[in-house]
Amino acid sequence: MAPDVTIINMKNMFAFYSSIIVVLSVFSVCTGDVKIVTRPMIIFADDNLYFELIEPEEISYTYKIRPAKGFGRSMTTFKRNIPLVLAEPLHACTSLVNSALIRSHIAFIERGGCSFVTKTINAEEAGAVAVVIMDNDSTNDEKMVDMIGDDTGREVTLPAFFLLGRDGFMIKRALERMDLPGAIINIPINATGIPPNQLNQPPWTLW
């Protein structure tokens, strides 16, 4: 059976974007400029942000996320064409075994099993620059959760975001079916002046 050209191209694209980001990171260290791109972060009145998934194309939509409250830092730079990588283990309650893929990228984690803080710290130790934590209820297509600290006093330096379970399930299922380690995203997107219902939202989720 002939290999799936789409999957091969996606894997090549993932590797290509990863190599670009590594080069940019080295350049940033050399120049002292830690910002990837200078574009303003947009925060809406309802405390939600949005990211744009670029590849794979079949799940290329705009997704709503909610920043953590009480732990982590705000995202102050616009990250373009950055990999969103499935954590291993997905719950991220223990050290991540795929840190080579996570490093300098965004960790994609599932809720449950331990606190949001523990998950974020484990991703940080693996070298992630941010985390997106999807709800473990794959039917949740509307309820945004306010992620809060766990009262342990541990310092968290990464931005952390909550993603609806339905969105997370659809993204995860597509990546696993295509045997991809992650997706390519822009986060946050500049949605100035665009009503949420006019963004390219997933057909399975209604805002």
From TrEMBL:
Membrane-spanning parts: 14-34
Keywords: Glycoprotein, Membrane, Signal, Transmembrane, Transmembrane helix
The PA domain, residue ranges: 83-168
A Pfam family annotated for this UniProt entry: PA
Cross-referenced PANTHER family: PROTEASE-ASSOCIATED DOMAIN-CONTAINING PROTEIN, PROTEASE-ASSOCIATED DOMAIN-CONTAINING PROTEIN 1
Protein name, per record: PA domain-containing protein
Record organism: Capitella teleta (Polychaete worm)
